[in-house]
Amino acid sequence: MSKLDFVHVELMTSDVYVEDEVSVAEYSAAYDVLAELAYPPERSRETIAGLMESLKR
């Protein structure tokens, strides 16, 4: 993956640009972990549909 120059973080009432190299690397590493752990799209749809169905009961 290519090196990022900055990270844009949206908060509830504002946003922030993180530009220092160490922090950007930490955000990039966190993103990589989340991307690895994320369900594929079809499994996400099935999981959400199952949760919605269980809430109807």
Task: Describe the fold and architecture.
Strands 1-2 form a two-stranded antiparallel ribbon. It has helices at residues 21-37, 41-56; strands at residues 7-10, 15-18. The chain is an alpha+beta fold and 57 residues long. Helices cover 58% and strands 14% of the residues. The chain is built from 2 helices and 2 strands; from the N terminus they run E-E-H-H. The model has no long low-confidence stretch (mean pLDDT 94).
| Mean pLDDT, all residues | 94
Strand order across the biggest sheet? 1-2
Radius of gyration: 17 Å
The residue fraction in helices comes out at 55-70%
Spans of at least 5 consecutive residues whose pLDDT stays below 50 are none
Biggest sheet architecture:
2 strands, antiparallel
SS element count, helices:
2
Task: Summarize the helix and strand pattern as letters.
Answer: EEHH
Features:
two-stranded antiparallel sheet; 2 helices; elongated
Topology:
Blueprint lengths: L6 E4 L4 E4 L2 H17 L3 H16 L1
Antiparallel strand pairs: 1-2
What's a quick, concise take on this entry?
It is built from two helices and two strands, in the order ββαα.
